[in-house]
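Dear U.,

For the methods section draft, I wanted the exact inputs and outputs in one place so we can describe them consistently. I've listed the two proteins in the order they'll appear in the manuscript figures. Please don't edit the token lines directly; just add comments below if something needs changing.

First protein:
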Amino acid sequence: MIDLPNIEGGGMTRRNFLQVPLAVCAAVTALSVKAQLPELKDGVLRVGVLTNYKPFSFLEGHLQGFDVDVMRRMATILQVELEIHNQGLASLSKKLVTGEIAVIANQLLATPENRRQFDFVRSYASNQLVCVQHEEDQRDFLSLDDLYGKKLGVLANTGVEDQARSALGQSVLAFPSIDLAFKDLSDKKLDAVLEESLIADYYIERDALPIKVTAPFAPPLSAGWAVQKGNKALAQRLSEAVLVLLRDGTFKPISKKWFGYDVSRPNVSHTSLPR
């Protein structure tokens, strides 16, 4: 995601297919028979995804990730083929403005700055900035004040690093990739790590790490796919497809594959709350 929430002061991420209601089945049909939008008129949806944004979209042998799996399911719902552009955000933003792509199919943060550039599609995942601690650690870190004098891991070159350093100084350790911070936390070389809940959940699930998500450090993050500013019709069409995705039983397996639980439901703690 791009940009980050303010964390100063602290305290500030279904049903079985056979049980789908008839209304959902009707919605699938409705999506296919509606008058075609210009972006879909040739049966191809041109999408952009970030190249290096694990676990949402990344290249390891081939393009993969949570948002990539969702994107492919959405294409089936919309009955379109995908033309995929995978690049950095600056390049994708330019392509969105020029019409080379119709949507950035990653859930970007709906910050005021981003809302000035894009219109947003309905979100399908709950996410927020959280504190991550070793599974044996029973301390409560509810704000940056609680972390004063503690070794705190953060991702380098982010707003979280800037704010944490401003409050805590040299006790903040910045890592080039967040999995390295989680490894040091697992080895008890850090007291805590600040990161988005979905990213923490991914690494906990993938690597069976002895760490846990504890306190939220910001309100839930509002995010969604981005379309060209002013293209309300496409945003609405894609939002309708998201609703079908969430109700037809196909989202939960995708979510469990990447995170181990249904991320469409708000759920801060990876270890203590039922999945």
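Second protein (the one for the lower panel):
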Amino acid sequence: MTAELYTLDASSKDYHRIAGALAFLGDNWRDHPDLDSAARAAGLSPHHFQRIFTRWVGVSPKKFVGALAHDTAREALDDGACMLEAAFEAGLSGPGRLHDLFIAHEAVTPGDAKRRGAGLTFTWGVAPSPFGDAVMLVAPRGLSAMAFADPDIESGFADLEARYPAAEYTRDDAVARQWAERIFTPTGREKLPLALYGTPWQRQVWRALLTIQPGETTSYKSIAEHVKSPKASRAVGAAVGANPISWLIPCHRVLASNGKLTGYHWGVERKRAMLAYETARG
């Protein structure tokens, strides 16, 4: 009991220190403060601060600041800013730093992020699936995206539209139902045409996902080794997370290195259901 109370007391003190550090980083992230500056704001040594911050927030102080910068730059590009403007908005010295930031967080260049969907025309629609209502984007060459309508159809479509913000869209639920019948029936999945729009790196990772057989699972590290980049697990994770076609490109079969279910764009509960569904069907 004494040890438990001590731990709780220490945890309470850590909370107040980290809350102060988060406020400091939130106010000063555009200056990209170094570890020493953030540690001083928390009243801790750099080593101790790095350890406590990472435990509480889940990422290092540097990655936390990078995430804030990336979100701001992404919003600026979506609003029509040029590369230089987006870089300055994110507190970066120029497009070169912006390029590095986007590669680290999305595994795409800022130009790719800005141009997504330009010149493309999609038919989109909603159809029932074993895992809830599916929202689909269909291009002339094949299926380009499939998400789920969580918490509603509008949210599901917004999820996909955000991936291709410069594209044009028309709705046709009948087309979506035809695709659902092909995708979710036992004989319907043969040679389904997929029209994938992503960077060469993303498409390489997505092709690697297609090699994972139903009922099998793998890890991000194994995917990285498969694409001949064994040290690129983080970039692989970003490409897996950017997978636009749920279920058919089976990112739900990728687990953490310890075998546990990890974050899934369409929900861990759905990921668990998908794996159970495949296991039950052999």
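Candidate sentences for the figure legend, describing the second protein: The chain has a mean pLDDT of 84. The CA atoms of residues 108 and 282 lie 36 Å apart.

Thanks,
Y.
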